[in-house]
Structure formats: C-alpha cells, structure tokens
Recover the amino acids of this structure.
C-alpha cells in the first residue's frame, strides 16, 4: 500500500465523522449526528440513544423526532453526501464505501467546512443491513457504481433485486407497510441504466423519473429536473466513458421482490447484454487511475 494511502487510512481513524465497520449502530444515527453537531470527542457509540424501532412491534417505536437520513452507497469521494449536506442542513447524510482512501476526501471536506450533518461508514455494501434499523433511512443515492457488465456478475449490480431486498429492510414505509423509500441511480453506463429499468418493470416498482440524457437542455428545463442531480462526482467530471450522456433513474421500492422472478430477469438481460462494451473499458481505465 502506498504511503499516501497509509496516511489517509490513519487520518480517518481519528475522524469523528468516519466509522469503520461500526457495531451496534441500528437505530442510533439520529443520536450520532446530534453528538457530531455538538462536537463531542470521542463519540461513544455504545452509549448512544436508540431513536428508531428495532422490531415489528409498533408499540416499541419511541416517539422521538428524527431528521431525515439519506444514504449514498458506493460513495467514493463522497461528493453527493457532501453536496447534499450543503443543500439540506436539516437532513443527515451518510456515505458508505469500502475504500478508506476515497472516503478520506469527503470526510476531510466535511470537517473543513463544518458540515456536521455529513458522515461516512467504511464497510462492504452487502453488509449494509447491519447498520440501520427498520425505516431509519429515507432515501438512497447510487452514483456511478461499477456497472458489473459481465452477465455472470449481474448479482453484484447495486440495483439487482438481491441488493434492493437489502435496502427494503431499512427504507421508509407507509402506514400500510408498503415500501416507499426512494432510490436514485446516476450512471454513465447504458447497460446498467437499461438493466435497472428492466428490474423496475419486471417487479412492478414505481418509476418516478428516467432519462438517458440527464443534462440535456430539454430535460433540465422540464418539471422532472431535480436540482440534486446537478451535483457532479469526480469521475463524472473526468468523462471517462467519453460520452456526455449521463443516465438517471429515480424509483420507489414499493413492491415485494419475489425471488421466483430472478431467473426471469436473468433470461431477459441475457438477450440484450454483452460481456464487453465501451463503458467496461472505461471502468478498467478508472480502476487503473486509482
């Protein structure tokens, strides 16, 4: 490991706004951010109050006001967590990624700018359910994840039903228990975009917005434009895919995701997907730079 990476790993271990593989956090994020805002050092995770319910028993829900909590998955340098933190000071934002040297960038900026509503978790995304209680997260942003273009790796895509079922365990629900948590996907991969639209259609999820050209004048001037989409990540700025077309989808996880349909999904995507495309080569270039 390079010297610069070692320095960054050492730095985030001292940051109060970065937790590495934290234990016992479900239900505690409102309390954590309250302590972060106070400037508490160090924050004793074990003693934090639980403010979100941990069971299906409605009577067990404490009557405590929570700030909306938004999660950025595969956050990289945390541009969205930081950018949204600036835009919405009354919300809390968490970036999640495995690469500590990437998290260091966003965490350092949040510390520098005094953004006490922005924090990061270093962990694997497939372990995400370990960190949140039921209905503790309001929204999820997935920005420029690895599209995992090979068909054999389809289950690693962050919009695959395998992952969506994980998100359903902690996203907000309506009174009738229908999942209403909103997921945003921003990508430069046509394959991942089409795959996600296929998932939404096959499982009957509610599509809110979809465009294969996010920054087109037509879309930016339409009522569907969301100012949050104007935040750009480091890799988006590099335009690695040599295409100015950014794809965006916003949808609700408001339906069950029967496992029985997973095989049908595999059959559908096998018909249109290829093992290598221009954006897979671009991803290889991206990895080479990191």
């Amino acid at each position: 490991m390079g010297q610069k990476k070692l320095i960054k790993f050492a730095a985030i271990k001292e940051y109060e706004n970065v937790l590495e593989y934290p234990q016992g956090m479900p239900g505690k994020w409102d309390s954590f951010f309250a302590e972060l805002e106070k400037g508490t050092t160090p924050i004793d995770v074990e003693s934090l109050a639980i403010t979100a319910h941990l069971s299906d028993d409605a009577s067990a829900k404490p009557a405590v006001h929570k700030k909306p909590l938004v999660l950025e998955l595969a956050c990289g340098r945390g541009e969205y967590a930081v950018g949204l933190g600036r835009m919405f000071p009354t919300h809390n934002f968490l970036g999640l990624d495995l690469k500590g040297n990437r998290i260091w960038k966003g965490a350092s900026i949040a510390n520098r700018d005094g953004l006490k509503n922005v924090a990061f978790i270093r962990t694997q995304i497939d372990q995400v359910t370990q960190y949140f209680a039921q209905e503790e997260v309001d929204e999820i942003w997935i920005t420029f994840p690895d599209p995992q273009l090979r068909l054999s790796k389809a289950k690693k895509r962050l919009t695959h039903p395998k992952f969506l079922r994980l998100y359903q365990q902690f996203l907000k629900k309506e009174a009738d228990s229908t999942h209403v948590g909103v997921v945003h996907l921003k990508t430069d991969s046509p394959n991942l975009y089409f795959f996600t639209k296929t998932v939404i259609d096959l499982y009957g999820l509610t599509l809110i917005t979809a465009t294969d050209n996010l920054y087109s004048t037509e879309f930016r001037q339409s009522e569907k434009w969301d100012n949050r989409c104007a935040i750009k990540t480091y890799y988006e700025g590099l335009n690695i895919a040599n295409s100015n077309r950014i794809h965006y989808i916003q949808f609700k996880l408001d339906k069950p995701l029967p496992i029985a349909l997973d095989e049908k999904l595999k059959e559908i995507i096998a018909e249109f997907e290829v093992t290598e495309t221009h954006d897979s080569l671009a991803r290889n270039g991206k990895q080479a730079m990191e």
The radius of gyration is 19 Å. The chain has one domain: 3-289.
